[in-house]
């Protein structure tokens, strides 16, 4: 905006200058005509006369012109062998407008028969030159001063606000999320509803001596709805709601984070009662003493200030802190004690009823759901899915229906979306040879046959040789029920399932391929945990290896060996025995049902994808659970 004012001011100055500084016309005469004009004489006039490339200003009468004439005649003296006036003499003079009118110069030139040419006065050059050399630099200087002044003011403001909190106040005009939009976390909703009720009607609790909780910590895996719960609190509460991320406190300058914590709680005290939400608390609340910078680095000072504000000599009354993290194991113990985070709420992966409720929420308007969609079946078919996974599945189903030009989202769209989220997108463009395709078919048929003939395992859900994600084929199983405690037989059945693909390759082709790498990783890891953590081997009911957590690195490292080398050899032998026994069991099942393996592989080569009903039709009904253990 300032630059436009500068331009307008410049144009105004230029116009005023042109108005009061009009240029006079210039008369150009041939050299001979100029000579005649001088010799014939002329009346007195005022103006400028060009002589020898110099302007001569003054009043020119007959005497002066006679002197000029004499000078010119001398220059053309025949003795000087010059027949023309020297080129340096200018036959040009400038007269003012008043002189032209008073002395009628143009009429006299016409009377003498002197040929002349009048150059009109220039409209721009002189004024533009003056403007460009005086006014423009001044305007540029003023504009630069204004710009620098504003920059210095902005820098000052940023410097003053560097230690200010970056918390955002939730506005009523923003998209409102309520507890009705959150499903599958009923216990967490109940605890948070009590906090909101306390803020709305504190006397209801205070009359019995109850005190408002200082903080609520939401813990759980990623995607389970912790941030959405906080948004629902903001939508339900009639009090100010401030949200900030844990990383917003930490800066490279020591003391800035602590300053922002102080400013955040000061803002909360001014607007008490209020709620402050800190997302990803582990960014600022990690265990002290685990960093490189000793006890005085920026993050630890920020954490210390947070602890003081939550419960110190100057406790923040009426300010409730809600925080969320998916790494509660790395938090400092001082944060987790009563008086700071009084309530620690686990927001875990939803069960089958929770998944169905979440699907009900995420399939509302504007989704157009077909009548054949059974959300209960989808909930049973998505064990281990978080709320974010289910939301992504609903969105993928809508996109797939749109690509197929459908008017509604039917069950087939949801099945495709579920497979896409669970196993990755199809890669039908991948070029695979017939031999490699055949190996893949027998490999996946081996997995599917294990799920069918080992009753302790979960039944087949889908078997396909269409490449998905990074795999050339996928065999998925579907749990019959929600499991929170795994039995030894179920773990062994999973190892047998993992080894079935390699065993099928060896039986049919007599060689081994690299396709079983991930299968072996799963089998070995599961067998080692059975030995070292769950006491499911001849090593006895003992745990071996203390899990050594490095909170500074933010992840679990390998177990710390707290046993002898002889015990380590015994552990390796026990793991080897479990995997070997499961391998032999898988071979026994495949050799017994070799004809079924071939039929299953041929069906995969023909149809590429088989579901539960197809597999049961080829192999017959699944056997019932046996009385004796597997191995």
Automatic annotation (TrEMBL):
Source taxon at top rank: Eukaryota
Compartment(s) of residence: Membrane
GO biological process, one term: proteolysis
Keywords recorded for this protein, A-Z: ATP-binding, Hydrolase, Membrane, Metal-binding, Metalloprotease, Nucleotide-binding, Protease, Transmembrane, Transmembrane helix, Zinc
Membership in a protein family: In the C-terminal section; belongs to the peptidase M41 family.
Transmembrane segments: 128-148
Name by which UniProt lists this protein: ATP-dependent zinc metalloprotease FtsH
Cell cycle keyword on record: no
Signal peptide: none
GO terms for cellular component: plasma membrane
Lineage, broadest ranks: Eukaryota, Metazoa, Porifera, Demospongiae, Heteroscleromorpha
Example GO molecular function: ATP-dependent peptidase activity
PANTHER family linked: ATP-DEPENDENT ZINC METALLOPROTEASE YME1L1, METALLOPROTEASE M41 FTSH
Cofactor(s) needed for function: Zn(2+)
Residue span(s) of domain AAA+ ATPase: 212-351
Entry-linked HAMAP family: FtsH
Organism expressing this protein natively: Geodia barretti
Xref: NCBIfam families: FtsH_fam
């Amino acid at each position: 905006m300032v630059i436009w004012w500068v331009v307008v001011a410049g144009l105004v100055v230029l116009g005023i200058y042109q108005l009061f500084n009009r240029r006079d016309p210039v008369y150009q005469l041939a050299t001979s005509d100029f000579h005649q004009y001088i010799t014939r004489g002329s009346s007195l006039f005022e103006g400028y006369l060009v002589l020898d490339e110099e302007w001569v200003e003054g009043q020119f009468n007959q005497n002066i012109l006679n002197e000029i004439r004499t000078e010119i005649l001398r220059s053309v003296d025949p003795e000087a062998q010059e027949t023309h006036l020297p080129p340096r003499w200018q036959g040009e003079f400038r007269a003012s407008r008043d002189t032209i009118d008073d002395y009628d110069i143009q009429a006299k030139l016409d009377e003498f028969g002197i040929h002349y040419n009048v150059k009109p006065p220039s409209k721009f050059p002189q004024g533009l030159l003056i403007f460009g050399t005086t006014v423009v630099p001044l305007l540029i200087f003023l504009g630069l001063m204004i710009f620098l002044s504003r920059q210095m003011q902005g820098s000052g403001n940023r410097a003053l606000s560097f230690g200010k909190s970056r918390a955002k106040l939730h506005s009523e005009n923003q998209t409102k999320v309520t507890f009705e939009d959150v499903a599958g976390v009923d216990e967490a909703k109940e605890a948070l509803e009590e906090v909101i009720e306390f803020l709305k009607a504190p006397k209801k609790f205070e009359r019995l001596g109850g005190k408002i909780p200082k903080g609520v910590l939401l813990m759980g895996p990623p995607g389970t709805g912790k941030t959405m719960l906080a948004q629902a609190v903001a939508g339900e509460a009639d009090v100010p709601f401030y949200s900030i991320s844990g990383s917003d406190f930490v800066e490279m300058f020591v003391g800035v984070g602590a300053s922002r914590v102080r400013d955040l709680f000061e803002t909360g005290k001014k607007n008490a009662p209020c709620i402050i939400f800190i997302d990803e608390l582990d960014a600022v609340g990690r265990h002290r003493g685990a960093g490189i910078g000793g006890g005085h680095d920026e993050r630890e000072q920020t954490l210390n200030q947070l602890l003081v504000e939550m419960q110190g000599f100057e406790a923040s009354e009426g300010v409730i802190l809600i925080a969320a993290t998916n790494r509660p194991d790395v938090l400092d113990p001082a944060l987790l004690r009563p008086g700071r985070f009084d309530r620690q709420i686990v927001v875990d992966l939803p069960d089958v009823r929770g998944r169905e409720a979440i699907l009900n929420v995420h399939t509302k308007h504007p989704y157009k759901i077909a009548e054949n969609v059974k959300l209960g079946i989808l909930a049973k078919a998505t064990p281990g899915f978080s709320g974010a996974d289910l939301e992504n599945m609903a969105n993928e189903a809508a996109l797939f229906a749109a690509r197929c030009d459908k008017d509604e989202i039917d069950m087939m769209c949801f099945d495709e979306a579920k497979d896409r989220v669970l196993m990755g997108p199809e890669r039908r463009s991948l070029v695979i040879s017939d031999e490699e395709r055949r190996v893949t078919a027998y490999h996946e048929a081996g997995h599917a046959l294990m799920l069918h003939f080992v009753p302790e395992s979960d039944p087949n859900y889908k078997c396909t040789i269409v490449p998905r994600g990074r795999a050339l084929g996928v065999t998925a199983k579907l749990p019959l029920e929600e499991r929170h405690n795994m039995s030894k037989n179920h773990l062994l059945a999973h190892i047998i399932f993992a080894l079935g693909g390699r065993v099928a390759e060896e039986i049919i082709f007599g060689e081994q391929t690299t396709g079983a790498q991930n299968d072996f990783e799963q089998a070995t890891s599961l067998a080692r945990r059975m030995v070292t953590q769950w006491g499911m081997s001849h090593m006895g009911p003992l745990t071996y290896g203390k899990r050594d957590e490095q909170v500074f690195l933010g992840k679990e490292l390998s177990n710390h060996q707290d046993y002898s080398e002889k015990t380590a050899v015994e552990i390796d032998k026990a793991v080897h025995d479990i995997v070997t026994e499961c391998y032999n069991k898988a071979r026994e099942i495949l050799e017994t049902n070799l004809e079924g393996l071939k039929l299953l592989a041929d069906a995969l080569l023909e149809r590429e994808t088989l579901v539960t009903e197809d597999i049961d039709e080829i192999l017959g009904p699944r056997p019932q659970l046996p009385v004796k253990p597997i191995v």
